[in-house]
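Revision sheet: structure tokens.
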Amino acid sequence: MKLRLHIRSMTMYIFAGSVLYLAAAYLAGPFAYLAAVLAIAAGMNLIHIVRCLRSLSVRPYRLSPTYTRGDTLRVGYTILNSGLLSFPGLDAAVFVSGPLEEGDEADAVCADRTMRVSVWSSGIRTVEEQLSLQHRGRYRISRGPVVYRDVLGWVTVSFRLADEYIDVLPRADTPVPAIQNVQGYGGAEMSAFGRSPDFSMLRGLLEYREGMPARHIAWRRMAATGIPYIRDFEPGADPELAIFLDTRRGWADREQVLSSEDTLVEVFLRLLADLQSAHIPFRGRTVPDGEFRLDSGTPLDLASLHHASRTIRFADGPRPTAQIRTMLHGAPATAAEVVVLTQMPDSELFQQAWTVIGVTTAWSAGQIHTIRQTSDDTRVLLL
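Predicted:
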């Protein structure tokens, strides 16, 4: 709670009271009554201010530190009046901004509501706002201040609540979107109806021989071919799949860019989760920043994986092709398959001998046409 005195208003009131008092003393008549009214008004105003300081309190809604994209956020607070006096005309506000990104000139406003409320004697008043969290990222929650101003303008009392921050995580149930104009995923058969690729088809497989551990049999491949194959686990070998997420910020309007980023992150995490559940060796990295790193040996469930994704941030950066090659030790052949996810219509990236998944939400028709004309359709997937 913060109390601010308005010295100018108080001085003018005292001056007016002094003039009326002198007039009443020397001239009598109605000036005496006016001086009395002025004194009574000052006394009642002081009582109202003291009761405000002692009776009003503000309690915020409790927030969870994390939410999932698409959740409804209910943010607000309760104003409690424990006294017998009413307090009309309080200013109240709720402000939500996000996702917060480095380099933004100003916060992106999700909710900004200012209102005037009244709290009657021994009453409760609720101020709240509901909004849908459409994008992953970090959000700032500002509630209040609740502001009381006395009738005579002597003081301003502000009840301030500390800002809170929440993290909105990617959706855990988002499927990989339908694939356009492509029949394979790095040579693997897949449906065009929007399900995850079958990564076991990308693995090195050996025909089963007597004495090999049966727990490593590729049952789906056996069901498809009738021939038992065993997954080829070679101790000390590099991971068979290297998955890179290009975290360069797109060029379109903010809403399209955020939608692209949401899709990229959710597809990236879904692929890592699928690989981990299938016990397929992999390494996942973000480029060019390299802040997010995950290898198949890291024990993470899906919830922990999504929580760890808070470190994924999109920003302007250089083309990641050279850095990917460096991470692959200068030779892409160290991984049986390299997968890159991007939202940038980067022709250099799409012309590499890698599987590239491009999220085209923020692309123009011309950019989509150019990428399709200049790249290998069997290794480019446009979402």
